[in-house]
Amino acid sequence: xxxxKIFILFLLLTLAFPIYAGTDEGFPGRAKxxxxxxxxxxxxxxxxxxxxxxxxxxxxxxxxxxxxxxxAINLSVNSDDFFVKINELAKSxxxxxxxxxxxRRCMKSYKAADKSKLSNIFVYDAGVFDWSKAYPDEAVxxxxxxxxxxxxxxxxxxxxxxxSLSQFEPLILDSVLIDIRHLKERRGNGLFLLAxxxxxxxxxxxxxxxxxxxxKEDKILLAYDDSGKEVRxxxxxxxxxxxxxxxxxxxxxxxxxxxxxx
Length: 262
Hints:
By secondary structure, the protein is of the alpha/beta class. The chain is built from 14 helices and eleven strands.
């Protein structure tokens, strides 16, 4: 076969296969959990509108309170009684259960489906943000529904509140500093001796107390989590309360453990 014929054959194959080859692109959970069936945004919405599914939000309660699919049930995959509760739910209904979490790279929905050991399930892996942008009338943002997609905080606004460890530390003395990690992640004291307060996000009363303290004393609110991901949910509460002077530690506690000053 001549070089020109090989090139033409390669070109034809390249044009023919993207329809199939790109189906799972950007959805790592599909490759990692090939035994778990997934459902697309459009198909999920069609069944949702027909009341065909029981929808389960596999994230934390705080994430759920910030934004969720309307009428979804919150059963966190990280809770100790998840397996018991999801199986009780499955026994109570003949409907298919659909798990979801944040977005395409979030594995909580797949982990929940896998941990449930159930067969009559789907994972909607495009996530709550894609759903909220497409169907704002069927989403809840900070207790409000219908929601306005313009109220979603863009990644650029989220990232502009991150500062490096070297910028973070000088602000500590004249700020309200909170460690929002779960107690299991914290494992004892915080990173900055007695300067930071343990305020897990699910402890909303304690969180409210420290946010009000920052407002009353007109201080900067500093916060960090385990890896720099959970603070995105805190940001919605800060913006809702009108707090503008706040920063998150870049990389979270995991970053600090590798870059702690000697």
